[in-house]
Amino acid sequence: MLSAPLPGSHNPPNDGVPVKPNQRVRIRFINESMMFHPFHLHGHTFQVMNAGVPKARKNTVLVPPKQTVEVDFDTNNPGRWISHCHNTYHLEAGMAFFVEYAG
Segment Disordered: which positions (predicted)? Predict the structure, then answer.
C-alpha cells in the first residue's frame, strides 16, 4: 500500500514509488489540510474503495479536507506515471509523485 499524505510530507516528483507489474496496488490519499485536492493518476484507471467495496473506475478522485481516500489500481501499463493534484499551484509546489515499474 502506498500512502500519500496531502499536503504534508510526500514523495518529490523526481522520486519514483517502485511497484511490481501485474499486481493490484492500493494508494491511500491522506488530506490533512482544509482544502479539497482532486488527485489524478496518469496511465491507469483505479477503483475508489468504500469500506473495502470497490466503486466505479476513475482516473481522478476528489480528496475532501481532513479525509482519507483509498484507491486500487492494477499495474498493467508499465512505465513511469505521475500522480498529482489537479490544482495547478499544488502541482507546481510539488504535490505529486511517480509510480513506476517495468513490464
Answer: 1-21
